[in-house]
Specification:
The protein is an alpha+beta fold and about 350 residues long. It has six helices and 19 strands. The longest helix has 13 residues, at about 155-170.
Length: about 350
């Protein structure tokens, strides 16, 4: 078509370049090999403030169960951080994950239940598991360790996440399987916004590093509220019902020594308090199994138990006497052995390397 007089000729637009799809083979650091049955997870170290620097990737911190999804064609297994197979407990999520990828994949993520505001809530998760409700499970995927014949653990995190996002975007797993996206901006401002929204905090990860199992500083967490695991070492009977718990007595391990951390008297309904009593009653012992002597006030009314059950506790701070302040029960953690419970101690903020 010839343009009229005074009319500019139409501009020829260049076609947008096609984005080349990633393949596991094309990722630097990928190693051909068999898919592992289980990989010990990389754990986040608690820090006083989120790290600063372009090498850090920031994500929302979820409040649920750390899960490794092992997808092998039509066979899907959901494995806890300690290697327990909990596939049957989280149906129908395994069935949805069959639509995530038709080949082989090993995905690291967090399984949660969200409240009406979209915030993950561990108390709701434990309540749903107890009540055998399964319609609210959401699996947030944040790392990809293996894909279709290639071990990706030696690849950089940013490359692993890019491959993971491509897998999820191409899947038909539905809204219950989601990609945990990176957050952009100043890390301190991001944490402040997360706290304003009522979230638990941030997890910051080195985007240029491989996946290393254990707690090594590659991943760090900064919290809005304190939520940690404690060992139940005793309980006080409720004033309302003799078959229910009125308060829990908790502690933590310092090396091999069990330390007293105080009482937790809120956070459980009458039904949960009764369920805790049924679990704790068979574990009763005559004396507390703690390393340091307790005062008469700390002992008053307490029925002591073997340190076998782990509770997730929300609290404001530690007192000068190393006791929990304003503590509330959130639920039992069945995925963590009591012997692994340590007192969380924040380290200084991580800064950009010179």
């Amino acid at each position: 078509m010839t343009p009229r007089a005074g009319q500019a000729a139409p501009r020829k637009t260049k076609p947008k370049p096609r984005v080349r799809a990633l393949t596991p083979r094309s990722i630097q650091g990928a190693v051909a090999g068999k898919m592992p049955n289980f990989v010990e997870p990389c754990l986040a170290t608690l820090v006083a403030a989120p790290p600063v620097g372009d090498e850090w990737v920031h994500e929302i911190k979820f409040d649920g169960y750390r899960i490794q999804a092992r997808v092998d064609g039509g066979d899907v297994k959901l494995i806890t951080r300690s290697g327990l197979d909990w596939t049957a407990r989280f149906e129908p999520l395994p069935r949805l994950l069959r639509n995530l990828h038709r080949g082989k994949a090993l995905i690291d993520g967090e399984l949660v239940v969200e409240d009406s505001g979209g915030r993950s809530d561990f108390a709701l998760l434990t309540a749903d598991l107890k009540g055998r409700r399964s319609d609210r499970f959401v699996f947030h995927c944040f790392d990809l360790l293996y894909l279709d014949g290639y071990d990706l653990r030696d690849a950089a995190l940013l490359d692993r996440k890019a491959m993971l996002r491509q897998v999820i975007d191409a899947s038909s797993a539905g809204e219950h399987v989601r990609f945990s996206a990176d957050l952009s901006g100043d890390s301190a401002s991001m944490l402040a916004e997360a706290c304003r929204l009522g979230l638990e905090g941030l997890v910051s990860k080195r985007g240029d590093l491989p996946y290393r199992s254990g707690r090594n500083g590659d991943w760090v967490k900064s919290k809005c509220i304190q939520v940690d695991e404690f060992v139940i070492i005793g309980y006080v009977v409720s004033n309302v019902s003799s078959s229910a718990v009125g308060a829990l007595v908790v502690g933590y391990f310092d090396k091999r020594q069990l330390r007293y951390a105080g009482r937790v008297g809120t956070g459980f309904s009458q039904r949960i308090a009764g369920d805790l009593m049924r679990k704790l009653k068979p574990l009763r012992v005559s004396d507390p199994i703690v390393s340091a002597p307790l005062t008469n006030l700390q002992r008053k009314g307490v029925i002591w138990v073997k340190p076998q059950l782990v509770a997730q506790i929300e609290y404001r701070a530690w007192t000068g006497d190393d006791l929990l302040r304003h503590a509330a029960f959130k639920g039992l953690r069945e995925d963590k052995p009591a012997a692994e419970v340590r007192r969380p101690t924040p380290v200084g903020p991580k800064q950009r390397k010179p």
